[in-house]
Write a structure and sequence with these properties.
The protein is mainly α. The protein folds into two domains: 54 residues; 34 residues. It has a two-stranded antiparallel ribbon.
């Protein structure tokens, strides 16, 4: 009986007097058709609203702007990613002669050619 009451309510038929309405066949058919049309319209509208909500783009949250920028403690330069700050700090250590005893690998310059004039070869 619960399923019958649920269906009658969905068709906008009063469950208390549905037996009286069912006795008059033309009135019953009109009521059921009208209730079914209203139910279908409501169901389709709800499905379209649900589909529109599902297909609409979600509000974008930009996490990069929400995070605090990373700052170099030596030169106060700002970085968005931790890897950028780490690489930058390595260049500070490589450029500081007090922290590194080896030569800077990025400062290599090839040997220069001498500027002495070229002597012509004499036949021997």
């Amino acid at each position: 009986m619960d399923t019958l009451k649920t269906t009658l309510k969905q068709l906008q038929i009063n469950p208390a007097n549905w037996l009286d309405l069912a006795g008059n066949r033309p009135a019953w058919r009109r009521t059921v058709r009208l209730g079914a049309a209203i139910y279908d319209d409501n169901r389709i509208a709800a499905a379209k609203a649900k589909m529109a909500a599902r297909n609409s783009p979600a509000p974008r949250v930009n996490a990069a702007h929400d995070q605090a920028l990373l700052t170099c403690p030596r030169c106060q330069r700002n970085f968005r990613a931790r890897i950028g700050l780490d690489e930058h700090l390595q260049t500070h250590c490589n450029n500081n002669p007090t922290t590194s005893t080896s030569a800077n690998p990025h400062s290599y310059s090839p040997p220069r050619a001498s500027l002495a004039p070229i002597q012509p070869l004499t036949p021997s």
